[in-house]
C-alpha cells in the first residue's frame, strides 16, 4: 500500500543522513523499519502495569503557544504520582524535562501518552521499573 507523508525539511534531511549511514537501500525500507520499531514500543508500553517507578523525559518547543500550559495541566493531573521534575534549557527554543513518578504503571503511561500527543513536543521517552524488582 502506498501512503503520502509531509515532513519538514530538517527532519527528512536528518532521516536521509541516518538511513544512508546505516546502509538502507531506500527510504521506504527505512520507514518500514521505523514503523516496526514504533509498533514494538507501543506494545511494550501497553505491558506497563502494577506498581512502578517511572521516568518520563520530554523535549519540547518552549515557544509553542499553549504547550507549557498543557504540560502543566498534565503534571497537575498526575501530581500525586510525581516525585520530581528537572528542567533544562537545551537551546533558545528547546527544553528538556525529566520527571520521576511512583505509582500504577498504567497511570504513569497515561501521563506519557498525554504528553506525547501535544503539538510542539519533539520527543517523549518512558522508562519504568517494577517496584518488586528493586526491593
Automatic annotation (TrEMBL):
Q: What does this protein do?
A: Transcriptional regulator.
Domain (Transcription factor NikR nickel binding C-terminal) ranges: 53-129
For the Ribbon-helix-helix protein CopG domain, which residue ranges apply?
1-40
Q: What is this protein called?
A: Putative nickel-responsive regulator
Source organism per UniProt: Methanocella conradii (strain DSM 24694 / JCM 17849 / CGMCC 1.5162 / HZ254)
Q: Name one Pfam family in it.
A: NikR_C
What are the recorded GO MF terms, alphabetically? DNA binding; DNA-binding transcription factor activity; nickel cation binding
The GO annotation for biological process reads: response to nickel cation
Its keywords, alphabetically, are: DNA-binding, Metal-binding, Nickel, Transcription, Transcription regulation
Q: Does the keyword Transcription regulation apply?
A: yes
> Which InterPro entries does the record match to this protein?
Acetolactate_synth/TF_NikR_C, ACT-like_dom_sf, Arc_rbn_hlx_hlx, CopG, CopG/NikR_regulator, Ni_resp_reg_NikR, Ribbon_hlx_hlx, TF_NikR_Ni-bd_C
Family to which this protein belongs: Belongs to the transcriptional regulatory CopG/NikR family.
HAMAP family per UniProt: NikR (MF_00476)
Keyword hit for Transcription regulation? yes
State its cofactor: Ni(2+)
Amino acid at each position: 500500500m502506498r501512503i503520502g507523508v509531509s515532513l519538514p525539511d530538517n527532519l527528512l534531511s536528518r532521516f536521509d543522513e541516518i538511513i544512508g549511514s546505516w546502509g538502507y537501500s531506500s527510504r521506504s525500507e527505512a520507514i518500514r523499519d521505523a514503523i516496526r520499531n514504533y509498533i514494538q514500543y507501543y506494545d511494550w508500553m501497553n505491558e506497563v502495569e502494577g506498581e512502578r517507578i517511572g521516568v518520563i523525559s520530554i523535549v519540547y518547543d518552549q515557544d509553542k503557544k499553549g504547550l507549557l500550559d498543557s504540560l502543566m495541566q498534565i503534571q497537575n493531573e498526575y501530581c500525586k504520582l510525581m516525585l520530581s521534575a528537572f528542567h533544562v534549557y537545551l537551546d533558545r527554543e528547546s527544553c528538556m524535562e525529566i520527571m520521576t513518578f511512583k505509582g500504577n504503571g498504567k497511570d504513569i503511561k497515561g501521563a506519557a501518552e498525554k504528553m506525547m500527543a501535544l503539538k510542539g513536543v519533539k520527543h517523549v521517552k518512558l522508562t519504568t521499573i517494577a517496584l518488586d524488582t528493586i526491593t
